[in-house]
Every structure is written in C-alpha cells, then in structure tokens.
Amino acid sequence: MTDALKELARQLSSEDPYERESAVLELVELADPKAASLLVRALGDSAEPVRRWSAHGLAKLGRAEDVPALRRTMEKDPAPSVRIQAALGLARLGERPAIDRLIQFLKEPPLDARHDAAEALLSLQETAPLRPLLRPMLDTEDESSRAWAAGLLYALGDADAFLLWRGTLGSPESRRDAVGVAPFMREPGAIRELLRLLAELPQEELDATEGDEPSLAEHLANALRLSGMELLLGAEATEGLWSDLLALLGRHQHLVPELVDDLVQFLAQRPPADLGKDVAQLLSEQEPGERGAIFLAIATLLPEISIPTLVALEESVREEVLETVREALENTRGEDETLTALGETLSESPFGERFEGLAEASMTQEQEIPEEEEESGASVTREMPAVKVPSPATVTREMHAVEEPPASPTMEFELPEEFSEEEEEDEAWPATAPPEADVVAQRILAVGAMLRRLVLEERLARGKDPSAKEEIQRLQRWVDEEELFSPLGATGLELFEAEPGAWSEEDRQTVAWISEELQLLLWALKQGKLPPSEARVEAAPLLEKLPLLKEPQPFLDAAERRSLEEVEAQRDRWEVMLDCARYESFARGIQAEPSLAEGDPELERVLDSAENEGFDRSAVEAKHGPVRAAVEGLRFWGRFLVTELQKEGLLAGKPGEGLMFQGKRLAEMDEGTLALLLGLSHGRHAALGWLLEGEGDEGAPPEDEDEPG
C-alpha cells in the first residue's frame, strides 16, 4: 500500500465524518484497484455519505471480487442512496437482478431515490434491456411510476413517450415526479412545459410543499436549471414562449438568479413594442396588488419595454402600476440605480406628471435617509442590528456557539465591527469605493493562485511529491513577476511565500474557504454563476477558468463588472443569512449559559427592534422568564429579516415561514448544518462587501502630495 493510501486509510478512522467523506472521495477519484479494500471497509461506516461514495467507488472500479460486498449492501443498507449505488455496481457487472432492483426504485419513496435510480439506469453502457422493463410501468395505476417510465423511455429514444410524460405533468398526483424526470430528457419541449407550468399555476399551488421537500416552485426552478435552458433559448421560439419567460422574470427570477442574464439577452431579441404588449397581457392576467411588483421586476431588467407596456395597459391597471413605481422610488430614495434610471425614463414620458417632485428627492443617491426611518428596523437592506462580533474567527467566544470559518487570507482588512452611535459620530470612516473590473480580475488571479497552492499542499501532505513542490515554486515566481501579491494582503502573502509543504492542516482548512470568494468574484465579472445556496463551492472547476502560470493580461483586459445593484442584492441576501445564523448561535449560547443574556447592549438592541415589529417580550418574560424571552426574541428578529427579503424576492420561500437551509429551519439545524450556514454566509457576505466597498484608501497619499518614488 502506498503512502497516500495509508494516509487515506488513517483518515477513514477519523471521528470527523467530514474527514472520512473527504477521504472516500479521494479514493473514488484515484480509481485504483488497490483502494478497493478500503472502500469495502467504508461500506460499514455510520455516515450515509461515506457509505454512498464507497459503493459508488466500487461500482466505478467494476471488480468481480467486490460482488459479495455490493450484494450485501444492496440488500441490507438502510439508506436508499447507498443501495442504489451498490445496485449500479452490480448492474455494470452484468447482474440482471440488480437492473430489476434499480427499476423497482423508480416506484419507491423518497423522490431523491427515484432520481438517483434514474440517473444510475441511464449511466449503464447497455441500455437496450431497459425498454422492456420500463414499458409495463406505463400501464400501472401508479401515476408517479408512469411519469418516470415515460420520461426515461423518451430519454432512451422512444418519441411517443413524450405525450405520456406530458400527461403525468398535468396531474397533481404525479406532477413532482414528472418535473423530477424532465432534466434527463434533454428536450426543449419538456423545458417549455416546465416553464408553462411555472407561469400558469396559481401561487398557492406553487408554494405548496410535501414533507421535507422544497416547494413546487423551487422544484420546478431546479428542474429548469438542470434541464439546460440553453436548449430552449437556442431553439426556435414557439407561441407563448415570450410571455412565459416574462412571467418567470416577473414572478420567480429569485428562484433562478443564474439564468436571469441569459433570459434577458434572449428576450431583448424581440422588438420592444411586441414585448411590451406581452408584458401588458401578463399584467392583465394577474391579481390586483401583484401587477406593480411584476412590472418593476421586468422593467428594471428591460427598461426599453416600460413605456410600450404602459401604453398597452388598460387605464385602471396602468394607474396601479404607476402608483407602485412611484412608491418604490419614494422608498428607495435613489439607492437603487436601476430603479432610479427607470424613474427618470418614465418622468420624461407622457406619464411624467406622476413623478413630479421625485427628481430631486427620490431619484438622487445623495438624499439622506431620515433618522427615524433608519432606526425603525423596517428596512433589511440598510443597517440592521447585530450581535457584536469581537473576533472575525468566531461569533463570540462567550456564546458557546459554532465558529465561523477563519478569516480569508486574501482579506487583510477585516470588515469593521459595529460602533455605538457616539463612536460613529467621532470616528472617521476610511473612504471606500467599489473596485474596478481589472482590480477584481487581479484579485481573482491571486485567490486562484492561493487555491491552486492548496491543491498542491494537500498532495504534499499525503506524501512526497517533487512535482508539487516545483509547481508551488513556479506559482510563487509567477505571482511575483505579474505583481499579483497585493490582493493577498500581508497575512496571505506570508502564507503564500512559505516553503512548499509548510502549510499546517489549519492553514489548508482556512484557505479552502476562499473558493466561496472566487466563485462570487467570477460571477461579478460575468464569468460564472452564483454559488449553490446550500453547499460549499468546488474549487477545481473554477481554477480551470483561470490563466494561472500564463500571461494574465488578456484576462485582465476582458474583465467586465456586473452592476452594483446585482451585487448589492446578493450582499443583502447573505447579510440576512449571516445575521440569522449568528442570532440562532447566540440563542443557543444563552440556552446553554443564561448569564450571557445579562447586560448585553447589542442583545438589547435586537430585542428592542423585535418588539417594534410585534414581539411581545413582556408576555414571554412573564410566562417563561427573561432567558426564554431573549432566545425567542433573537429568533423572532431573524424571521422578520428573512420575511422582509422574501417579500422583496431576494430569498426563496413564503414570507413568514422563516429561513430554510438544507430542508431545515434554523432552530431545527444540528450544529454541523448551522456551522455550514455560518461559514457560507460569512465568506460570501465578506466577498460581496469587498465588491461593493473595496478596502478603503487609507494607504493612499494625502491630497496635493506625490506618491513616493
């Protein structure tokens, strides 16, 4: 056994399930028959993901010697996801009973298991035996089974199965299953049907959930992403497609933020007058009270259709829409540039009299927010009270709470802690400005170099690897020659310039978190999608996009920033998620040690804000005591912040139901899930904050003085 396999064997004995899962993933990636014994051993692990990847690894190796272990797993493992991977391994070895078992999984709960079974069946090299096994399912009374059979038969080349699948999509009993199988079909017509469903179903049905599953709207949005919207946008536009895409942008764009740019580009091909008529028709079909919000969502993305839409509307609907626009302009007070631009366009139109008086008040970014509004706690996108964070590495040592990830080594300047009002008056904040596109691109290359070194350091940690040392030295020379060291900051530069193999395990864990930053920086330059909302980012696909160890100038020259409004919307989203994670962490700390609730001024600020929004603190204190009141107040305020963002369409979910993360509400999360939420929101909020504010100019020379040298 090689040194690398010995190290992975040691990691498989770790008490940390995440470390064991990482070890199994590396074993799977190695695809080394010598690793089979370790994978077989891991089939008995207590953690489901470890067992699942172990079975997947054995299926990938396809060794006849592993058949007994795979059979035991297929028959006895309690988790369907593990049994499916074991069955896949046996099916690849030609065992017909295993194929029958995979077919059977298409009829069994949960929905995720049916999805995994379908994926396994279509991955088989020989798919001809599947058709005679799937066709009998078309005659069953179980509509869910019919949906999967029809969808997979179409994916296998049976064109007649499409109509059968569409029939199951129209039935409420089988709709979720029909949606689940759609991505496997890779058919523009199937994507079109999903889009029509999202546009036509009433909101109550779209918001409906089943058990721990996401809402139907979220399920449909996920299927659209997985199906490949480019298949639909690249095909000839069919009747009604424009209207349904507009409905997606107007009602549900928060569910598919990574598709918005593509949708806007596609819709912009249609003449504005025609598109305006489509929007007008869409608005006329909506309930009163919804029309204005839908118009704003579309018109801020496609401002050229605003006036044609208003002209085509009936007078009563037009008045409702114009009033909504005016109220939005008054409330934002010039802080939203896209909305301000829309207001300016409308003020110069035949409808301009509706916006008189707003040109100097609501449409200017210099307008100050009235003090009473700023302190009301009603606006999520302005300053929100938060538990004071004395250290960037932890929520607070006194809270007995989960830790945030270590501060990113590429961020030398920490985000400032909150100051009291007196301190704010006396303290001069450093001037800040959003970094230009080329500065963002430089930071991307620096972060990419750091993550590439992480990959090499992990190879060195598993054993001697001369090639890894040589590449680290080339990376160091490249960063120095291209003058990319500045974005690393002093701490990051010291780490980056350390001798190859000098990084500790803690160093590697710290650097791993900056893949979140890299994903967002690439998104900000329109070179990547938003990161997954409930999982960590994989660094490897991102590094492939970067010209590491190559001439960087073409990459820097091609840099183009997204609008500040897009970045700010995402920053607001993750700010709320970060605050919610901190409040829940603080609440658990108070439950464990009630003395934490005594005399904390920041806690009092949160509780006061919660009371202003309807939390009956005195009633809870009278019934359960001050500790319970503090805990419930923190959670109440977190739910309030989430509700406000849900109303604005910046967070998925129905207003009032609270934050959902990996299928759980905050109070239901285990410590590991809460720690993941805290880590993701901390890193992403910090990266988005830098994109909006930079790092200040405190190192710049004074005015009227030349720079040194």
From TrEMBL:
Any single Pfam family the record assigns to this protein: HEAT_2
Write down the superkingdom of origin.
Answer: Bacteria
Q: Could you tell me which Gene3D superfamilies the record lists for this protein?
A: Leucine-rich Repeat Variant
Record protein name field: HEAT repeat domain-containing protein
| Originating organism | Hyalangium rubrum
Q: What lineage, starting at the top, does this entry show?
A: Bacteria, Pseudomonadati, Myxococcota, Myxococcia, Myxococcales
